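Risk mitigation, structural track. In case the binding assays with nickel (II) ion fail to produce interpretable data, a predicted complex structure has been prepared as a fallback.
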Amino acid sequence: MRFGVSLPEKLVEKFDRRIEEFGYKNRSKAIRDAISDFLTHKEWRISKERFVGSISFVYTHKSGAITHKLIELQHDFGDLIKSTMHIHMGHERCVEVLILSGKSKKIEKLYECISSTKGVENCKLAVLAEK
Ligand code: NI
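Fallback model:
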C-alpha cells in the first residue's frame, strides 16, 4: 500500500542521514521498521497481558528524602517488583534496577512515579511480553 505523508523538511533530512548510517537502501524499509517499533512500543500499554520488564534509573541522595520516597514507592508496588539491584556510584550517586512482572498499567504507573520523583535522572523502562 502506498500513501503520502507531510513531514517537516528538517526531520526528513535527519531521517535520511540516519537511515543511510544504519545501512538502509531506501526510506520504505526504514519507515516500515519505524512504524513497527512504534506499534510495539504503544501496544503494550493497552494490552491486558502480563509483562516482565525493568526500570533503571540514576539518582543523587543529597538529602535522605529521595531515598525514603523511593523505598516507600517500592513497598507500595511490592507485588510488581521481583528483584532490585543497587549500585553505589561514588559518594552520592546511585544506580538502581528493578525487575518487574505484572500488568502493563501498573508497570507504567510505577515508571511514572519514579521518573517524576525529584532527583531521579535517566529513568528508563524496558518491557518484554511474559508469554
Ligand atoms: Ni547507593
